[in-house]
Amino acid sequence: MVKNIINNSVFRIFTPIFYGVTMYILILLIFDRVQDLSENFLIIELVLCLIITYTLFESVRIFILLVEKKISDQFSISKRLLIQGGGSLLISVVITSFLISFYFSKLVGFSSYKNELIVFNTIFLLTTVLYNMIYFSFFYLNKTNESLLEKEDILRKNVEIELDTYKNKINPGFLYDSLETLISLSKQDIDKADQFILKLSSVYRNILSAKNSELVHVDNELKLVDTLIDIFNFKLNNNLSCRVNKKTLDSNIQLISGTLVVVIEDIVNRTVISELQPLIIDIIIDDELFVIQHPIRNKLIQEFSKQTEIDHLKKAYREFGDNEFDIIEESKNKIYKIPIFKLED
């Protein structure tokens, strides 16, 4: 929240000086001609204007702070405007009248200063109105900013909840396929079944270890992809492979945890993969994007859809950065364009 300017030290020190000098010149212009300003300019009267300005500004400021503390939560804005505005104007009249009366009657020795009293009170009443306008301008600005921040905080928490749900969710499709493959391997080759169990446990260990992390290093995600492809290849007879082209030397690239697992599963679930049509997934990493592309060979029926997880990822990337997680189809290829995040050294 932006601090209200009336409580700013620089404003409190320097504004009364500038404003008091300006008001003194204005008062001289009211009583004299421009040609007479230099003759009638008195330091003591300038000091009087500065004293009135300082005293008025600080008194009204203290009164506003008391209003904020005592009644801001008990009254509506309209009632607060009435109380704060009326109280400030009363303070202005009392302070200005007292100081002007003291100056003219005690220091100068004038017995009649009605016109001066009216002029000074009029000017400083307008000053009080302006002072309150400045205060309420920042007051409403802060209210607007608080409302926007609350909305942003709600959106962020919703995304975090969705992301946590997504990260902690055990994919039933992947687990189902993995158990089927394990049962088949256990009847064919015990050694391969052991290898499969090790790789499967590695995937879930990685998922569990990263569930409390929003971002993970891209190298960790790539290692997980290698393990995941090895698991799929037990069923696909090594007809699935991945090529990585790293066009950047930046070692601090990060992704949202579990991104590549979802994307690779989505590709495998959608695509026909066989000995006659092996699938090569290309991964291209540059300074702006993490791009995954593959030829389009859609299955007629998808047993398990990853659309919910994809939608969660899109919302998460939208919340974390300015760029969108995008999925497009160009010619015969499907392309996943994933924003990257760079960890500062």
In brief:
This protein is α+β, with helices and mostly antiparallel strands and 345 residues long.
Structural account:
The protein is an alpha+beta fold and 345 residues long. The two termini are 29 Å apart. The protein is rod-shaped, with a radius of gyration of 36 Å. A 5-stranded mixed β-sheet has the order 2-4-5-7-6, covered by helices on one side. α1 packs across α3 (43-70), α7 runs antiparallel to α8 and α9 packs antiparallel against α10. β4 (279-285) and β5 form a beta hairpin. The protein is built from 10 helices and 8 strands.
User: What is the SS-derived class?
Assistant: alpha+beta
Gyration radius over CA: 36 Å
Strand content: 5-15%
Q: How many beta-strand segments? A: 8
Mean residue pLDDT = 81
Order of strands across the widest beta sheet? 2-4-5-7-6
Major sheet size, sense and barrel closure: 5 strands, mixed
Termini separation comes to 29 Å
Order of helices and strands: HHHHHHHEHEEHEEHEEE
Query: Low-confidence spans: pLDDT under 50, at least 5 residues?
Result: none
**DSSP helical segment count:** 10
Helical fraction equals: 55-70%
Gross morphology is: rod-shaped
